[in-house]
Design a protein that fits this description.
Layout lengths: L24 E6 L3 E3 L15 E2 L4 E2 L6 E4 L6 E7 L6 E11 L3 H9 L5 E6 L5 E4 L7 E7 L9 E10 L3 E3 L10
Parallel strand pairs: 3-12
Antiparallel strand pairs: 1-5, 1-8, 2-4, 6-7, 7-11, 8-9, 9-12, 10-11
Length: about 180
């Protein structure tokens, strides 16, 4: 079946919302906490559904997605096309600023860079982008900034980068209660 494209014109005059940034809560979980990571649908009836996960990922007992707070004016995700002619994919990069410091933050900053996880990063309108898959590992860096006495709070900037073949939307429920 050939691909049927549609016009790409914003819905001007209809209270169209195109605010940038992210919501204040993102989610992540190490891949080892999942019972089942849902794949993209292999042959959806509607071709536009090919890049949406509509069934929730399931977790092993005692695990769920963990919330990551970001200052609401400091969250961003960028999806850059990569590759050459006849090939390509995406480089997904998300940046979150997590205010504060302490034992838990120091632990995460040291450990997360070598872990494999799935990140759910919501746009300001609530559209959830999934960074990472069962086959594509995000690389995570966390840098600490004390800020200045004259302004700016201290905290960590988390940068998530992943090369993956598809830009994936997560349309299922985000599990934030540990599985039983």
């Amino acid at each position: 079946m050939p691909t049927v494209y549609k016009k790409l014109v914003p819905a001007f005059g209809t209270a169209y919302n195109n605010m940038g940034g992210t919501l204040s809560l993102a989610h992540w979980s190490p891949v080892g906490d999942f019972l089942v990571l849902q794949p993209l649908p292999p042959s959806p009836t509607n071709p536009e559904d090919a890049y949406e996960i509509v069934t929730a990922h399931t977790f092993k007992t005692g695990f769920c997605f963990l919330e990551i707070y970001t200052s609401h004016t400091k969250g961003q995700s960028v999806w850059e096309p990569v590759g050459e002619e006849d090939g390509g994919g995406w480089k997904a990069t998300a940046t979150l600023f997590i205010p504060g410091d302490g034992k838990e933050m120091t632990f995460m900053a040291n450990r997360i860079r070598s872990d494999w996880g799935i990140f759910l990063i919501p746009d300001a309108d609530g559209t959830i982008n999934q960074i990472g898959t069962a086959k594509h590992k995000p690389f995570v860096k966390m840098g600490k900034d004390t800020g200045l006495i004259s302004g700016g709070g201290k905290g960590y900037t988390m940068t998530i980068e992943c090369y993956q073949p598809d830009k994936v939307l997560y349309k299922a429920a985000v599990t934030i209660v540990p599985a039983t």
